[in-house]
Design brief:
The structure holds two protein chains of two kinds. By secondary structure, chain A is mainly β. Chain A has strands at residues 5-7, 10-14, 19-24, 30-38, 45-50, 56-59, 62-67, 72-77, 86-94, 106-111. In chain A, the strands form two sheets. Chain A has a five-stranded antiparallel sheet with strand order 1-3-8-7-6, with no helix packed on it. The relative contact order of chain A is 0.35. Chain B is mainly beta. In chain B, the strands form two sheets. In chain B, strands 2, 4, 5, 6, 9, 10 and 11 form a seven-stranded mixed sheet that branches. A four-stranded antiparallel sheet of chain B has the order 1-3-8-7, with no helix packed on it. In chain B, strand 5 (42-49) and strand 6 (56-57) form a beta hairpin. Classes of the chains: A mainly beta, B mainly beta. Chain A binds chain B through residues 1, 31-32, 34, 36, 42-46, 49, 51, 89, 93-105, and chain B through 31, 33, 35, 40-45, 48, 50, 56, 58-59, 90, 92, 98-109.
């Protein structure tokens, strides 16, 4: 089971602010990294699956980068909106992985 | 709509009672998973089934059993419910690829309270 850490645990921003948070994981035998968005009272939804060092993925105002050599991924939200309020989960997986083990998440609250 | 269906959505059990949580997917996915959500703990993997006919333990399997009934259905059973099993349970499925590089599709969850 991979040891994954997400930071910060929570943060609060104002509407229009840009923000980012981190997912750290062991870099050895890396295979892929998943990001999920989880709104309160809903189900987690897949955002990105990243596999290549230096990879960058984007979906609207949300983007993610991946550094497999040092074992971290950043999730960026540009111009946060109240509807971005959610918990963002990451799940790294190594080459022996069979199921996703999630970090505890970063909970983002955006106020208008 | 295609997706993952969980039943029931809510359940209250008395300590010691048993019950089965049902999960079905209609996306022809081979892999299915059960997670539980607890405050401050994120999502923790209970059991998973990489393909029909196989099941494996996850992070927190104690007190649970699973059955992969067929390709569509994956059930989670609590034989003797305990208050510590009060949680929200999520079922998920994904296309068959190990290690998993396809995103999971989650059901809407079952909120279980054990009193």
């Amino acid at each position: 089971i991979l040891n994954v850490e997400q930071s910060p645990q929570s943060l609060h921003v104002q509407e229009g602010d840009s923000t980012n948070f981190t997912c750290s994981f062991p870099s050895s035998n890396f295979y892929a990294l998943h990001w999920y968005r989880w709104e309160t009272a809903k189900s987690p939804e897949a955002l990105f699956v990243m596999t290549l060092n230096g990879d960058e993925k984007k979906k609207g105002r949300i983007s993610a980068t991946l550094n497999t050599k040092e074992g971290y991924s950043y999730l960026y939200i540009k111009g946060s909106q109240p509807e971005d309020s959610a918990t963002y989960l990451c799940a790294p997986i190594n080459q022996a992985g069979t199921a996703l083990i999630f970090g505890k998440g970063t909970t983002l609250s955006v106020s208008s | 709509n295609a997706g993952v269906t969980q039943t029931p959505k809510f359940q209250v059990l008395k300590t010691g009672q048993s019950m089965t949580l049902q999960c079905a997917q209609d996306m022809n996915h081979n892999s299915m998973y059960w997670y539980r959500q607890d405050p401050g703990m994120g999502l923790r993997l209970i059991y998973y089934s990489a393909s029909e006919g196989t099941t494996d333990k996850g992070e927190v399997p104690n007190g649970y059993n699973v059955s992969r009934l067929n390709k569509r259905e994956f059930s989670l059973r609590l034989e003797s419910a305990a208050p510590s099993q009060t949680s929200v349970y999520f079922c998920a499925s994904s296309e068959a690829k190990l290690p998993p590089i396809y995103g999971y599709t989650f059901g809407s969850g079952t909120r279980l309270t054990v009193v």
